[in-house]
Amino acid sequence: MKNHDNHISSYMLNWTVLLVLLMLTTISILAIKMHLGAYTVALALILASIKVTIVLTYFMHLKFENTMLRLMVGGVFLLFAIVIAITFTDYYFR
Amino acid sequence: MNNTSATVPLNYLNHKTGLWSWLSSTDHKRIGLLYLYSITIFFCVAAVLGLLMRIEKFAPGPTIMTAQTYNGMFTIHGIIMIFIVVIPGLAAVFGNIFLPIMIGAKDVAFPKLNLFSWYIYITGACLGLYSQFANGHSPDTGWTFYVPYSAEASSNVVIALTAAFVLGFASILTGLNFIVTIHRLRAPGMTWFRMPLFPWSLYATAWIQLLATPIVGITLLMVIAERTLQIGFFDPTLGGDPVLYQHLFWIYSHPAVYVMILPAMGVVTEIFPTFSQKPVFGYVPIVFSSLAIALVGYFVWGHHMFTSGMSYESRWFFSFLTFLVAIPSAIKVFNWLSTMYGGSVDLKPPLLYAISFIFLFTIGGFTGLTLGSLATNIQVHNTDFVVAHFHYIIFGGMGFGFFAGIHYWYPKIYGRMYNFKWANIAWGFLFIGFNILYFPLFIIGIQGMPRRYFDYDPKFQTGQMISSVGAVILVIGLIGMISNLVYHVRRGAIAPANPWHGVTLEWQIPSPPPHENFDEVPVITHGPYVFDNPHTKND
Amino acid sequence: MTTSEHIEHSEHIDSDTGKLGMWLFLFTELFLFGGLFIVYAVMRSKYAADFHHAALELNVLIGATNTVVLLVSSMTVAMSLTAIQQKQKNLAIGLIFITLILAGVFMVNKYFEWGHKISLHLYPGSEVMKTLPHGEIMFFGLYYMMTGLHALHVIIGGILLTIVMMRISSGKINQEHYLLQENGALYWHLVDLIWIFLFPLLYLIT
């Protein structure tokens, strides 16, 4: 019933996380000016994935949750990546 | 529900009475029964539609209905059977009633959410029925809602799509509830690998419900947007891609087949050890085959689209994965047969149904491989062969699994026993009628009889006629089975707590179970299928 | 998982159970958007150039502003949880209030963004739209569908957080019992998480 032995993240940690996220956002906006061509999507997705991982880990407290839940979250993202990949076995070769 | 004399102890059926006590109950057993009754009603409606279609096909040309009526009927038959009967089916009925009991819990993790899911389900089911009777034509797209036709048809497609969307939501919430229940509410000592196999199959099922259903939800929303806002994702004239719809639809709807069949596999896995009085053969392989079916089953959706213009690479890839998913199913079949081998087999009605499950499921499975290989698929695609295969899996598999389950757990649910002789005769009609109904469809399918056709070439008439006769025999069997069960709810002989000498937890409590299942929290000290346990021998 | 878990049968749902339920629900939300991301991936690979042209219509500044707004709101809602755990009731209420204001700012931005597009007749089914190349029609279709569904989630999240705020002020959510607040925060982070993907995919295409 009670919320027990829960980790309390400090205000400082929250600020730091926000700063990192804002920096990454700035990088991704600046990156489009670099005209990387085909790599732009890849870079944008990598940066977005890093940001999402940070949000999941710190804001959503995954770092302090049990292994089972972390595995589930990882598995769900992996599953989605596989589904996209398999869909592209069709579209890539068509 | 029961005659509440002083001699009958309080149980979940009689501790409160009145309709409202049922409609507002958060007791998982009562919610399971609510599902059972609603599913039975919808099953009967859709079965009657199926019978009417079969009568129509008794002779070529219009027999008892017009072509448009026929199109509406096979669509509604499909929508009701798939979305309202079979997908919730076993999980919502037996999962609700027995999952908490079998893992030693007093209820599911979120009882209110559970009741709420039932109301969502009923809302969706009523919407589905409404699409049939609202102004305009009943939907005629088939249950698959393929674009571009579903985006253009003037029939009540939007209502039917909304119904499927709402029903999907109920399915998601049930799956969510089961996963949390299994993770959090197992009795002390009930480790993962001491859990009976029916909960395991529900666990695998629940993950599919949770992770596949949203995809079809958004896809149906896209079709609605296509019709109402001209958003055009699937419309080639606007740059959209109709094959993309098929991808999205089957990303859900193929795993949905495993939502239907996995719990049925779980049910028969409970029945074989009990009626052989022998531990299940290969507990761990069965667990992992359930999980493997759920996982690999998620990646084989493309085998529904071999003739839709997918790339060659994609086709062989999906075909390969399809053959792969047959392996865990085969493992299960071997395990069931090995469980019976050398056991003291007691051929009571539940086992009769479970054995016919293996027989019919195997035929359905092998013909599935015929469909899953690229070359033969081109010949039999979109013919009655597919219809026969599908019904062997869904009706012969899930349906007979359900019948096996209801005959197995009936004494536990109602505390009464049905008539065995009556049940055996009904089984005979069902099993024979089923095969006469669907087996000819394999043959005329290979000969080229297309599915979903109102009319046919007279050369197919023999097969069609035999099939229609089978439908009548099957319906007689259904009436016999249902009337046996309904009649004995009140009038059957009082059933003991453990009529089949089962060893899983649900047999260790009174029949019908008390409101809170267990007087004291059970402590589990061994695996689920230990038959020489003195505790179970003494009754 | 351990073997010594107790069966709780009370009106309250214990914290781990409730949170697991919420996480599973978030998974379904991810796959709901996932369907749209699949459509996006397919269409973008098919019409790369058209997507680039169409994306020029979107204002990067508004998109970036909304990204910052959501990131900050994610932090404030995370902080409100820290506040409630440290018994700082008023601070927790204040932080959720800020989150709600930021949600409002996001929606107002969205309103002007959509309004501007619609005033240019860039909406599905319009005459202007039908003259555009196929890829641009797909892009705007996806733009409306994705941001629309996302905005719906912002609204639902806002309602949820309003309830949380009222429960905190009435004392029903407190240092001992804050499951609802945790779940509300998780939901709000999901809204942020989806946007983190939507922003580069819709606004930053070159």
Question: Could you please describe the fold and organization of this structure?
Answer:
The complex is a heterotrimer of chains A (94), B (539) and C (206). Chain A folds into 2 domains: 1-60; 66-94. Chain A is 71% helix and 0% strand. Chain A has 3 helices and no strands. In chain A, helix 1 (11-31) runs antiparallel to helix 2 (39-59). By secondary structure, chain B is mainly alpha-helical. Chain B has a single domain, classed as Cytochrome C Oxidase, Chain A (Up-down Bundle). Chain B is 67% helix and 1% strand. Chain B contains 17 helices and 2 strands. The longest helix of chain B has 35 residues, at 242-276. Chain B is globular. Residues 1-6 and 534-539 of chain B have low confidence and may be disordered. The longest helix of chain C has 37 residues, at 134-170. The N and C termini of chain C lie far apart (47 Å). Helices cover 80% and strands 0% of the residues of chain C. In chain C, helix 3 packs antiparallel against helix 7 (179-203). Chain C is elongated and about 60 Å long. Chains A and C meet through helix 1, helix 2 and helix 3 of A and helix 1, helix 3 and helix 7 of C.
What is shown here, in short?
Chain A contains 3 helices and no strands. By secondary structure, chain A is mainly alpha-helical.
User: Residue-averaged pLDDT of chain B, rounded?
Assistant: 92
Task: Determine the CATH topology of chain B.
Answer: Cytochrome C Oxidase, Chain A
CATH superfamily of chain B: Cytochrome c oxidase-like, subunit I domain
Low-confidence parts of chain B, pLDDT < 50 over ≥5 residues? 1-6, 534-539
Q: Quick one: overall form of chain C?
A: elongated
Uncertain stretches of 5 or more adjacent residues of chain C:
1-11
CATH structural fold name of chain C: Four Helix Bundle (Hemerythrin (Met), subunit A)
Number of strands of chain C: 0
* Alpha-carbon distance between the two ends of chain B: 27 Å
